Sequence to fold (202 residues):
Amino acid sequence: MASPRRRYGPAARVLFTLLDLLYRRSRTLSKFKVLEVVARVPYQAWENVAYVAVTHRYSRPTFARRIFERVHESWEQQDNEQWHLLILEELVEASGKRESFLRYRVVPQALAFAYYQLSWLLYALNPRWSYGLNADFEDHAEHEYALFVHETPELENRPYDGLFVDEYGHYESVADLFRQIGHDERVHKQESLDRMDEPRFI
Ligand SMILES: [Fe+2]
Ligand SMILES: [Fe+2]
Fold:
């Protein structure tokens, strides 16, 4: 809550405005689910570019190994975002809210598809640009989760005993669960920022 938001770049600002227009500014479980559908795709795009790079550079094994280490990292982050998505789906279902198929299935898929293409292209042109966009996205997610916990105090008294405790961990309350998810977003942001300062490897 106390940390200032990043100065978001133009692509991130367009995306956040679009999300606010489509899903309103208020923070809801359904809107977070849309965020999580989109959140996974940069990691999928980077994985894809890295595999293509290995195809071209396998004649230099040490270099190819470095690229492959990045593929592994992308898997971990993708898995982490996957748990966020599944947990949110579970919480929305438990809330009994009925979601429109068009707004909450079709449109998020279209957004994710466009965001994948953009992340892929930026990464292929200059990985720094793609990492910067992802850092903006993760920073936004981190702050939105923190605000959500802050403005929904009843989450403190709601125990979390969901389907994914074995994989994602046990949390005393749904508030703690969201604090952990927000913290994950911070870690993702930091990882992208760390990568931005490294020399190009593809
Ligand atoms: Fe996430
Ligand atoms: Fe994230």
